[in-house]
Amino acid sequence: MSDVSAGKFKARVNRLRTRVAAAVPRPSRSLAWIPAGALTIIVVIWSAILPRIHAERQDTRNLAVAETEQLASAFSQHIGKTVHDADAVVSWVKYEYERSPSTFDLAAYQRQGLISADTALQVTLIGANGEVLQTTTQNAKQVNLSDRPHFLIHQANPEAGLYISQPVLGRVSNQWTLQFTRRLNNSDGSFAGVVVVSEDPDFLTDGFYSLDSLGRGGMLAVISDNGYLLSLRAGQSRASPVGPPAAAYREMVGAKGGVFDDPLDHQRRFVTYRHLSQYPVAVLVGLSERDALATYRHAKMLYIVMATIVSVLLLAGAYIIMVMMGKLQGLAETDSLTGLPNRHLLTQTLRRRMEAVGPSKRLAMLYIDLDNFKKINDTLGHKMGDELLLKVAHRLAEMTRCEQLLARIGGDEFVILVEDTEVTRKASALADAVIKLFDRPFVMRGNSYLICVSIGIAVYKDAGDNEFGLLTQADLAMYAAKETGKPANVSQHCTYTPALSERALQDIERHQELQCAIINREFFLEYQPIVSLDGELRGVEALVRWRHPTKGVLLPAEFIPFAESSGFIVQIGEFVLDQACQDFREWQDADPRQLTLSINVSPMQFTTGNVVHAVTRCLNDYMIEPDRLQLEVTETVVLDESALVRTRLEALRRAGVKIVLDDFGTGYSSLSNLVNLSIDGVKIDRYFTRDVPAKKASSAMLTHLVGLTRDLGLSLVVEGVETQQQVEWLSRFGNVMAQGFYFSKPVSAAALPIVRAA
Ligand code: C2E
Ligand code: MG
Ligand code: MG
Fold first, then answer.
1. Using an 8 Å Cβ cutoff, are 70 and 78 in contact?
2. Whose CA is nearest to atom 12 of ligand 1?
3. 505: Cβ–Cβ under 8 A, 6 or more apart, which residues?
4. What is the CATH superfamily name and number for domain 204-290?
5. Interval between CA 81 and ligand 2 midpoint (Å)
6. pLDDT tens-digit profile of 18-58?
7. 553 lines ligand 1 (CB under 6 A)
8. Res 223 pLDDT > 70
9. What tens digit of pLDDT does each residue of 564-590 get?
10. Above 70 in pLDDT, residue 419?
11. 709-to-104, 671, 718 alpha-carbon distances in Å
12. Which of 292, 447, 692, 725 minimizes the number of CB atoms within 10 Å of its CB?
């Protein structure tokens, strides 16, 4: 084939293959376990990670809560000490003033360093009328403070003790200050005024705030029991003194690490509340939830990112594996030539369908085999064979469409699965339809080829069957169809019955028996004389028998047909040839007559065996003149048109061996064939002899045959001569050779009327 036509052929084949594949339903085995497996692993990963994340969050929160509690404890101590220090100054000034109001001089104390910016931002003495008496602030304005709450409280209540005011813009200091105040009494206990020690509100929280302990988003607050927010620091900004009212922090009172939304900066914080034991003051410590959970959130992010990456990788991996497995499965389940499901996929599908429907007579199988496909392959070449298979696949695929599964399970073997409530009827109708498909010839390279098919049908109705059993049944039925269809060159279908299995079993047994018979040399020969009409021995025909170990001696009719169909005939034939030649050699040595030896040769010895080699070897080994050997062949051999058989026949004739057409008249050969055939003689079947001379037609036929063979120079033996009458009738032809029970039945070599060496 040239490159161009090879390319075209390939393209055509590919087109057909694509069309076939497109027309075929493809049951594919589920690969769902792959994503399911991946999902399971993902679920396991996440169900390990999520509780872990949750636990870490809980741990972190607990830690933050514990930290706020610790800080609250420390801060409350700090505030206690700070208030105590401020009160010490207040109490000392009160004491000094009350001891000697007239000599009390704040400026002097200030100069002596007893009052400094370290101890208080400002110390002020307010008189009973609210006027500032003395103050540590330089050049202070003269103001009246009688409206201030602390003034009013001390004025009204001699027992008020230390009073802490809310941050106010000092009228004297002109700064936002926190005021620690106590009442000044005259010696008689009457109201003398108020001593005010002012502090920067931030002073309360600044001294405690540190980034290390509170972080960037921490919060400190000091709240007085009378409802003032004394100092507040939230994050980096100082909120006091203009922060929200203390009431905004009301819900945090009593908190122990709970999370609150800060009313000032709206940050969420873990907050702990603690009240000072010795002062009417409470503290709040807050740790920013964001800061506290930052490490946890980082870890959580890491966990989630890792788990997501693993999940995505798993899913991607599962997808890739699924695609790859799908492709591999496709390859493993597809016939590479036609693209149809292959044997593997068929048996898998069949098993599943059988399990699904049960032996309910709802499932059947058509086993389709092309007749003589081997011949097409051998004569037209494998590429044409492939193209034919594709065309067949295409026709079948178009017919079955997506209704039935169509598979190619071997060289020229296709299977269709049928499912129906009336499956027997449907399968038989489908088989008819398939046969009809093959009525149309297949056109390849401009030539038309009519192909016959043999179809076996097997219905699933026996619970004991499995997919392979059903295939075997369909196969047996197909062979039964072939047996009847192939010789007549017609397509046939046959439905499986148990008798077919029995026959198959018998065949297997017979196969075994024959094999043993060959090994154990159970075959032996009898010889039937071929005589002239006066009874003189002219030759012998070797006839094989089988001494069966249990059945006794079997005649050829009981084993030759099977030996031919099973191929054993080649070995049996070679034994007969060798044994007969060996016996013949002995007789030749002693008997002076020019006898002939006739041996039956099966067609298979011409096709499968090498009859030429076997014959020449025997002639040489036993030194037999070739023209003394007559090979009796059937007309299948002489009418065979194959080059191999023709060459072998010719080779034998060239070697001098005579070829005799056996059983003439029983087959299809006509008289005219005799003229064209390359044979040396004819044996007329006993079918004609039987009715001679009673039946006119047989007598006339025999008369013509004798004339014809004589004219053509062919030898002639009349078989089946059984009576004196037949001999007398035959004697009219003069020198005719005969074989029959009248003269002798087949006998052992020893019983032959042969002259033997003394
Ligand atoms: P065949 O070659 O036509 O052999 C003659 C058969 O006719 C023999 O049967 C023989 O016993 C039988 N016969 C001969 N004279 C008479 C008669 O007067 N009346 C009747 N009724 N029968 C007669 P056999 O031995 O049973 O052989 C049957 C066939 O088996 C042979 O027919 C031959 O075709 C085949 N055969 C025998 N031996 C061999 C062998 O070694 N190789 C092959 N391939 N075929 C063999
Ligand atoms: Mg014969
Ligand atoms: Mg015969």
1. no
2. 720
3. none
4. PAS domain (3.30.450.20)
5. 138
6. 665 555 555 555 778 888 999 999 999 999 999 999 999 99
7. no
8. yes
9. 989 999 999 999 999 999 999 998 888
10. yes
11. 175, 10, 12
12. 447
Ligand 1 atom 38: residue of nearest CA: 543
What is the Cα–Cα distance from 320 to 326, expressed in whole angstroms? 10
Measure CA of the first residue to CA of the last residue in the chain; give whole Å.
Answer: 70
- Which ligand does the CA of 663 lie closest to? 3
**In which band, very low, low, confident or very high, does the pLDDT at 559 lie, cut at 50, 70 and 90?**
very high
Task: Determine the residue type at 426.
Answer: K
Name the residue at shortest CA distance from atom 25 of ligand 1: 543
Confidence of residue 427 (pLDDT cuts 50, 70, 90): very high
Q: Ligand 1 center to residue 1 CA distance, Å? A: 50
542 within 8 A of 523, measured Cβ to Cβ: no
Say how many Å lie between the CA of residue 538 and the centre of ligand 1. 18
CATH class of the domain comprising 514-751 = alpha beta
| Global confidence as pTM | 0.57
Q: Is 555 in the pocket of ligand 1 (CB under 6 A)?
A: yes
Give pLDDT, residue 258.
93
* CATH level 2 (architecture), domain 3-15+333-496: 2-Layer Sandwich (3.30)
Decide if 355 contacts 463 (C-beta within 8 A). Answer: no
Give dist(CA 256, CA 258) in Å, integer: 6
Q: Is the CB of 746 under 6 A from ligand 1?
A: yes
Give the number of other Cβ atoms within 10 Å of residue 48's Cβ. Answer: 11
Report the nearest atom of ligand 1 relative to the CA of 569.
44
- Full 3-state SS string of 82-124: HHHHHHHHHHHHHHHHHHCCCCCCHHHHHHCCCCCCCCCCEEE
Instruction: Answer whether 543 contacts ligand 1 (Cβ < 6 A).
Output: yes
Closest residue CA from atom 46 of ligand 1: 600
Q: Does ligand 1 have an atom closer than 6 angstroms to the CB of 574?
A: no
Q: Tell me, what's the pLDDT at 3?
A: 46
514-751 and 3-15+333-496 share a CATH fold: no
> Residues 638-649: what's their mean pLDDT?
87
Q: Where are the domains of the chain?
A: 3-15+333-496, 204-290, 514-751
* pLDDT tens readout for residues 105-150: 988 988 888 887 666 778 999 999 999 999 988 887 888 999 988 9
The string of pLDDT tens digits covering residues 371-408 is 989 888 888 889 999 999 999 999 999 998 767 899 99
739 lines ligand 1 (CB under 6 A): yes
Q: Is the CB of 459 under 6 A from ligand 1?
A: no
How confident is the model at residue 13, as a pLDDT? Answer: 60
pLDDT beyond 80 at 667: no
Report whether residue 720 contacts ligand 1, using a CB cutoff of 6 Å: yes
**CA geometry: angle at 326 spanning 323 and 329, to 5°?**
150
Whether 737 and 572 have beta carbons less than 8 Å apart is answered as: no
Q: Is the backbone peptide bond immediately before 753 cis, with ω within 30 degrees of 0? A: no
**From ligand 1's centre to the CA of 713, what distance in Å?**
25
Is residue 545 in contact with ligand 1, taking CB distance under 6 Å?
no
- Probe residue for ligand 1, chosen from 553, 559, 560 as the CB with the greatest number of ligand atoms within 8 Å: 560
Task: Return the pLDDT at 210.
Answer: 78
